[in-house]
C-alpha cells in the first residue's frame, strides 16, 4: 500500500455551539475521515450531518491561498510582507479610526490576541464579534439576573429533566446532537415531556407533546403569565425566593442592568394584569396552555429545563425576556439541581469561550472585566504588564454602530475608516444590509474606507474587500474552543493549510509585530518589550509571536496560559493548557483537587460548585446586590419594533436549516450538504400562498421597507408557518434575506432582532 497509515486525533467539530467531539483521521497530509468520538460526554459517538462532513469543508475548490490586494476592479496577488505593511500603514495613519470585527468562531488564543492587540496595544476598544448578533442578550440576561455571565447548568440537565421547554428554539436542526440526546432517552422508555413555544412549526415541534404557537414578543406575556399564576395559586417556592432572591423592575428613567429594587408585593401587583386570558390576547397562546405551563412550574416534584438560543436573543427586548425566563425558574425553585435549569445555547463553536470568556466585546476585558470599570482596567494593565492608563476607558463601537460608522462618509461623521474582519461574513449576516454593508459598493462616496477580510473562501464580504487574507481553518492550526456548557476543548494542528494561508492569531500578532518594528509606542509593555513576548523563568524573552510557540504544550509561557490568569478573577477558573491536551474538554470552573483537575457541572449549588461556601446550599456569589441573591425581574410586555400592517401584511422570520451552518460559506461547498439543501426558499402557509396565487417553485417578490428579493416558494417548508408568518433561511449568498431585515436592537445587549420584519409578497 503506497499510502501512509491513518493517524487519528481529537478535535471539536468546527460548526455549532454543541461542541461535539470528533476523531479526525489524517492520511498523506489530508483529512481522510471523521468519526464521532465514543468516549465523548457531549455526543457519545454521534455527529449530525454537518459534523460527518466537517472534513470536506477544508477542500472546496476555491480556497483562498494568497493575500490579494484590490487594484481597481481586479485583485493582485501580494506577499504576506506587503499585506502586513498595508494593514500597518492603515493603522498607523489613524489608529483610532481602525476597528476589528471578529467572531465566535475565533479560537480562544485568536480572540485573546485580537483583544490584547486592540485594547492593550492600540488603546482602541473598537473590537466586537459577530456573536453580538447571536447571543449578546443572553449575556445581559445572565448579568442582570446573577451578576455574572454564562449558564449555571450544563448538558447533563437534558439527561435529567422531566420537562424540557424550548423557548423559540429549534434544536432538532440547530443543535441536532444535543436534541438527539433527549430523543434517545425517550427511545429507552424514559418519560420526558417536550414543549415547543414558537412562532412557527419546526422539526423540533414534530417531537413535542405540546406546541404553543405565539406571535412575536408573545414570550414576554407568557413568562409574566406563568409568574402571575405561580403567585396567585401559591405554587411558587417561597423558601427558595425568601432565601436566595430579590425583585427588580426597570428604573422609570434611563433604565440600566441594575434596575430598581421592588418588594415581592410590588412584583405581585405588576403581574396582576397578566391573567391567562390577557396573555392569550397578547401572545396568541390559549389560556389553558398558560395554565398548563404554570402547573408544571408549580410542581416541585418535576425537574424542568428551559432551552433557548436566537429566538429569545434576537429580540428588541432580548435582555428582558432572558431575565424573565430565569425569573420563572427562580420563582418556582426550579434551579440548582440536575435537570432544573434555565440554559441558553450558542450558535457558534466558541461564542462562549472566545467572546464571553475572553471578553472580545467592545465593552469588556478578559475574565468578566469591564472597560468602564477603573479597577478592572488597572487589573488588566497589571496582568498585561502595561503602563498605567493604557486601556481606553470608553467602550468601543458595538457591531451595528461599527458598521454604521464604516458605511457613513468620514465627513458626515463616519469615524471608522478601516475594518479588519476575521472568521465571519458580515456582508451576508449583518441586518439591514442596504444600510450596514452595501453602501460600500459606492467607493466614490466612501472613498476613505478600507475593508480587510481574513477568510478561507470568497464570500459576500470579500466581494467588497480591499485586502483579502487567506486563513487556515480548524485542524490546519492549533486551537481551543469553549462550547455552550462552559466546556473548554483543545486540539492540535493536524495538516498544513493550503498555499500561503496562515491562522488568524499569527496574522494579528504579525501586524502587531510590524507596528512594534516601526516603534509604535502601544506595542511595548512597561519594560519596553513587545506586547506578545513573554519572559521565561530565567528572564529570557520568548518570541511568542512566532506561531510555533504561542501555544506549544512544551512551554508554559504561551498565550493560553497567559490568558488563563484572567479566568481566576471571576470564578471562571481554567486548568493549565496541558490538562486540556489530555481531556476531551473540561467545564469551568476547573479547580485542582490533589493531583486532579476537577470540572464543575452545576454552578451556584453547594453540592457541585467549589466556590459555594459550606452550609449555603445555593449561593449567587457574584450577586449584583452583594447579598448572594439573584434578581427576579418584572418587565412589561411590549410589542415588536415592527408589526405587519395593511401595506406590509406578513411577519418575516429568519433562521438556519439543518444542513447549513450560518452563512453557508463552508457547508455550501460540501457537495452532499449542498445537494440536500441547494438554496433558500420562502416558507409560507398554504392559505397565504393560495391568496397570492403562488405555487411550489414559483418565484415570489418579497419586499420590506429596506429592500427586496426574489425567492422560490416552498409551501409549508419543512414543517409550517402559520398564516401571516413567513420564513427565509439566511445560508444562501445568492438570496440575501438580510436585505429585508430590521436593524432595531435591544437597548442593553445591542443585539438586533432578525425575527420580526414586516414584508409584502407578490408574484415576481
Ligand atoms: Fe457539529 Fe453541532 Fe452537528 Fe455536533 S451538532 S456534529 S457540533 S454541527
TrEMBL record:
An example Gene Ontology CC term for this record? membrane
How does the record describe its quaternary structure? Component of the nitrate reductase NapAB complex composed of NapA and NapB.
Q: Which family does it belong to?
A: Belongs to the prokaryotic molybdopterin-containing oxidoreductase family. NasA/NapA/NarB subfamily.
Q: What is the annotated role of this protein in its UniProt record?
A: Catalytic subunit of the periplasmic nitrate reductase complex NapAB. Receives electrons from NapB and catalyzes the reduction of nitrate to nitrite.
- BP GO annotations: cellular respiration; Mo-molybdopterin cofactor biosynthetic process; nitrate assimilation
Which positions are annotated as binding [4Fe-4S] cluster?
13, 16, 20, 48
Gene Ontology MF annotations: 4 iron, 4 sulfur cluster binding; electron transfer activity; iron ion binding; molybdenum ion binding; molybdopterin cofactor binding; nitrate reductase (cytochrome) activity
The UniProt PTM text for this protein says: Predicted to be exported by the Tat system. The position of the signal peptide cleavage has not been experimentally proven.
The gene name reads napA
Keyword check for Electron transport: yes
Which residue range or ranges hold the 4Fe-4S Mo/W bis-MGD-type domain?
6-62
Q: Which reaction is the catalytic activity of this chain?
A: 2 Fe(II)-[cytochrome] + nitrate + 2 H(+) = 2 Fe(III)-[cytochrome] + nitrite + H2O
| Cofactor(s) in the UniProt record | [4Fe-4S] cluster; Mo-bis(molybdopterin guanine dinucleotide)
Q: What is its EC number?
A: 1.9.6.1
Record carries keyword Transport: yes
**Cross-referenced PANTHER family:** PERIPLASMIC NITRATE REDUCTASE (PTHR43105:SF11), RESPIRATORY NITRATE REDUCTASE (PTHR43105)
Q: How is the cofactor bound?
A: Binds 1 [4Fe-4S] cluster.
Q: Which residues bind Mo-bis(molybdopterin guanine dinucleotide)?
A: 50, 105, 130, 134, 310, 314, 425, 454-455, 477, 504, 654-663, 738, 755
- Broad enzyme group: oxidoreductase
Keywords from UniProt, A to Z, are: 4Fe-4S, Electron transport, Iron, Iron-sulfur, Metal-binding, Molybdenum, Nitrate assimilation, Oxidoreductase, Periplasm, Signal, Transport
**What name does the UniProt record give this protein?**
Nitrate reductase
Give the subcellular location.
Answer: Secreted
Which residues take part in binding substrate? 730
